[in-house]
Amino acid sequence: MEGVGWLMAIILGGIAGWIAEQIMKSDMGVIMNIILGIVGALVLNAILKMIGIIPPGGWIWQSVIAVIGACLLIGVYRMIRGRPSAV
């Protein structure tokens, strides 16, 4: 998360992970929410930079990027793991 300190990154990561959890209808837990939010922000920032888009700084934009990135990570995890079959 660019432009925010470590403590704010943890707080924003937890909030972003929780929002992504609600959007994607998953149940991850508090620690996983923080990890998803922080890693999601890092991953999406890297992807945006690779395609030539400079992500805006500041905590509001980084929160939006973290939520989108966390949703992306949950989606990739589901694709790799596969959906459980209905019984």
TrEMBL record:
<feature type="transmembrane region" description="Helical">
    <location>
        <begin position="60"/>
        <end position="80"/>
    </location>
</feature>
<dbReference type="Pfam" id="PF04226">
    <property type="entry name" value="Transgly_assoc"/>
</dbReference>
<keyword id="KW-1133">Transmembrane helix</keyword>
<keyword id="KW-0472">Membrane</keyword>
<dbReference type="InterPro" id="IPR007341">
    <property type="entry name" value="Transgly_assoc"/>
</dbReference>
<protein>
    <submittedName>
        <fullName>GlsB/YeaQ/YmgE family stress response membrane protein</fullName>
    </submittedName>
</protein>
<comment type="similarity">
    <text>Belongs to the UPF0410 family.</text>
</comment>
<feature type="transmembrane region" description="Helical">
    <location>
        <begin position="6"/>
        <end position="23"/>
    </location>
</feature>
<feature type="transmembrane region" description="Helical">
    <location>
        <begin position="30"/>
        <end position="54"/>
    </location>
</feature>
<keyword id="KW-1003">Cell membrane</keyword>
<keyword id="KW-0812">Transmembrane</keyword>
